[in-house]
Amino acid sequence: MLHIKSFTFNPFQENTYLLYDETGEGALVDPGCYEASERQELKDFIHENQIKIRQILNTHCHIDHVLGNAWAKRTFGAPLYIHQEDLQVLKSVEVYAPNYGFQGYEASEPDGFLAEGETVSVGNETLKIIFVPGHAPGHVVFYHQESNQLIAGDTLFKGSIGRTDLPGGNHNLLLSKIKSELFSLPSETVAYPGHGPKTTIGYEKIHNPFVGERAIY
């Protein structure tokens, strides 16, 4: 059984997700922890539940989702995986992080790349990698078919979508990919976004003002 534990970190109120199953093996998705207290909160939960972090995954590499990458790699001894199209996005964070007040940002290097159609394993559970660019050029999401749960990153929010005015963003591409890749999932699929509360694919197909049946754009 796949367990999903969420944490909300940093001034951007980013959702960091810890995935694990009954084997005690886990994956850390988008570690946005920056302050020492945030990192301690995450570390304490992992220690108390005796979870072994086997890999660190980035849905995409905007600053709020990667602030804890280097710390997590060092602390848990786990490799980092991103989509290759987001490599330059990750590298650019080191340049602009001080402008956002993150003077102590530590750059990280990926240990491998995620590819569309492949899978990632969390203990005995398998999640499909789905490529959904538009918010970022290398944005991926992770879908667990058995439980109909989706780690959506910044593609789809409750009642909204990811912004597309950042470098590498493409509004029309994001709308198209949400409709073709995410709205093709079962309506009962629970989507865990990179910010804000969880939602369902069925709800967004009807109510989302950008891509739902009642869309105004």
From TrEMBL:
Keywords: Hydrolase, Metal-binding, Zinc. InterPro entries: MBL_Glyoxalase_II (IPR051453), Metallo-B-lactamas (IPR001279), RibonucZ/Hydroxyglut_hydro (IPR036866). The keyword Hydrolase applies. Its cofactor is Zn(2+). The keyword DNA damage does not apply. Residues 13-195 form the Metallo-beta-lactamase domain. One of its GO terms (molecular function) is hydrolase activity. Pfam families: Lactamase_B. This is Glyoxylase-like metal-dependent hydrolase (Beta-lactamase superfamily II). Coiled coil: none annotated. SMART domains: Lactamase_B.
